[in-house]
Amino acid sequence: MLKAKVLTVFPEMFPGFLGYSLTGKALEEQKWQLEAVNIRDYAFDRHKSVDDTPCGGGAGMIMRPDVLGRAIEATRTKGRIIYMSPKGRPLTQKLVHELAAEEELMIICGRFEGIDERIIEAFNVEEISIGDYILTGGEQAAQILLDAVVRLLPGVLGNEASLEDESFENYLLEYPQYTRPITWNDRDVPEVLLSGHHQKISQWRRQQAEIATKERRPDLFKKYLDSKNS
Ligand code: SAH
Are strands 51-52 and 62-63 parallel, antiparallel or unpaired? Predict the structure, then answer.
């Protein structure tokens, strides 16, 4: 079972949206565990200060290595230590699968302008980014990472088969989906989907997925072609 430990100055932000829907139900059923560690509990002074001004000057505050280091040391397990960071390795569905196979994950949530670089070196921390934009804190990013990881854990999604055709599995975006009513505001569901002909349906879906990927995500489409030819 996955045990996730998040280091944060806002423990009350957890489980946040992870407490709802499938991830929330799985948490309740102990299909995964979540612990939020308050970094402030490891501060040294009366004011529980966790940050200080950047050496060399500049705007904002940096999270202190002594306090964060003490929090990591006091709570670490054998698993990977991740720092949510815009400078990190991009979070992809491939990496999500990799993380879903882990027993334990420690996730450091940055605030202010981020954390002292020496923490990353000293604890062999992996930096992971959820995209090329800047958030106010790592808590939001950690919840997104965990949401993606937890839905891959055994027994979390009702229908495991629904994973296979999803966007990014096999480097393709998903084909368009429809449900009843068959006609809505003069728009019909594509006829092939009503044919009951499984082979034709999967051919059509594959074709639609390829068209969408080629148009919208040429970078992904190239990976798809490479993976087909290898
Ligand atoms: N000064 C930093 C940004 C700090 S944003 C820089 O320019 O790189 C504050 C915190 O939010 C970061 O420490 C990080 O934990 C989190 N964060 C912001 N954007 C993120 C992103 N795209 N992916 C993951 N974490 C992010």
Answer: antiparallel
